[in-house]
């Protein structure tokens, strides 16, 4: 059996079973967007996220500064997904000695700018030579009163999402096909971790279960189901699709909805809260919030169209060992 057969999540599950998870103060171990570590009266949310040249970024598509900013955004997004406030970051870089020094410094600039824009001062890291560049970011945040866990979803909750989906996946598809990605490119090249929105939503105390969308809406909703022991119904007609997606989908004869259902690297918040909470949630933040479905007892993720029929899913999301399955 190869890792392709086992899949990224099969591998992580076996790894999780090897680790006892027993360490003083380790309140949440492998399985959520961050680990939660209790230190005195504080709780810290800690995550690490790696990006590899050729897999996660192409230097002919993005500037080195954008690569740095995206890598930091991805790690901060996991801190935000716990309802926590980013505080510190560490960065390990693997860079080729052939690189122009200016490019490496621009990558560093992107990392530092993104970290400081969100209050996560760069506190250290490591630098090594590598044939293929990689960036690994550790981000640490301070938890607030309400901890947002993937295991917090309750049957009867509504399922909510910030922003609009499908932009990054459509942008990549357009570039691969030699098309102009238009407005979707911004979503791909400059993702925004929802730091401010988490700070605004947390005090409401309405969020039950939460995560960020990094691997695709349907696949990530599946993690909420597994961790919470619930099922999720996604109403396809209510899923907000980014305005730039339709044009790309039309040119590529692709269903725009599928980019929104399975596209990764969105870094939007996917969360559950009481069913009537939309108005209160929306009033707290400046970006759109949509209710896209509901949480039910048991089961898994079901995507339904307006007639109640099941929407077929050629791909549910990203698996690092399987690439995109579409
Ligand atoms: P995210 O997309 O939110 O970054 P992942 O899908 O990458 O989350 O990881 C899921 C969970 O598995 C996380 O809790 C993460 O810490 C854990 N995990 C992933 N890879 C490893 C690894 N190599 N060692 C230990 N834990 C891991
Ligand atoms: Mg995450």
Give me the secondary-structure topology.
Layout: H1 3-18, E1 26-28, E2 35-39, E3 42-52, H2 64-80, E4 85-95, H3 101-117, E5 121-129, E6 134-142, E7 158-162, H4 167-176, H5 184-189, H6 195-201, E8 210-212, H7 217-228, E9 230-235, H8 245-252, H9 256-262, E10 269-273, H10 278-284, E11 289-297, E12 301-304, E13 318-319, E14 323-324
Parallel strand pairs: 4-5, 9-12
Antiparallel strand pairs: 1-2, 2-3, 3-6, 4-6, 7-10, 7-11, 8-10, 9-11, 13-14
The structure holds adenosine-5'-diphosphate (ADP) and magnesium ion.
Question: What would your notes on this structure say?
Answer:
The chain is an alpha+beta fold. 33% of the residues lie in helices and 26% in strands. It has 10 helices and 14 strands. The strands form 3 sheets. The chain has a 6-stranded mixed β-sheet with strand order 1-2-3-6-4-5. A hairpin with a 2-residue loop joins strand 2 and strand 3 (42-52). 44% of the residues are buried. The structure holds adenosine-5'-diphosphate and magnesium ion (MG). The site of magnesium ion has 6 residues, from strand 8.
Short description:
The chain is an alpha+beta fold and 326 residues long.
Strand order of the largest sheet: 1-2-3-6-4-5
Helix share, percent: 25-40%
C-alpha geometry: globular
| Element string (H = helix, E = strand) | HEEEHEHEEEHHHEHEHHEHEEEE
Runs in which pLDDT lies below 50 for 5 or more consecutive residues are: none
Q: What is the radius of gyration?
A: 19 Å
* Record field, number of beta strands: 14
Q: What's the average pLDDT?
A: 96
Q: Number of helical runs?
A: 10
The largest pleated sheet is described as: 6 strands, mixed
Structural class given helices, strands, pairing?
Answer: alpha+beta
